[in-house]
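in:
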């Protein structure tokens, strides 16, 4: 039995605040970009095995790659049960084949 989860990690900037004299408009440069990645991970506590991937997007294709990684850790003559959480972001990732 495998337990699987995924998480988005990265940077997304917010408003920049700076001190300034009353009535002035000081420059406040900031990075307007953002970058993130998705970490897919699964563990089988009984066998002491784990499988993980870092992907640039969370979609059906990424989940299929993760399932292939899990299957590479399972013996050829065995079956695996993968327990998924029911988080809304998880459902958005792979309940549709449309690319985002």
């Amino acid at each position: 039995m495998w337990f699987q989860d995924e998480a988005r990690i990265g940077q997304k900037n917010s408003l920049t605040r700076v001190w300034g004299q009353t009535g002035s408009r000081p420059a406040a440069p900031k990075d307007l970009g953002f970058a993130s990645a998705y970490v897919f991970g699964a563990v089988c506590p009984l066998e002491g095995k784990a499988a993980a991937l870092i992907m640039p997007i969370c979609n059906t294709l990424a989940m299929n790659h993760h399932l292939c990684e899990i299957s590479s850790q399972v013996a050829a003559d065995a079956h695996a049960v993968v327990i998924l959480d029911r988080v809304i972001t998880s459902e958005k990732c792979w309940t549709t084949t449309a690319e985002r």
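note: The beta strands are 2-12, 34-44, 49-55, 82-83.
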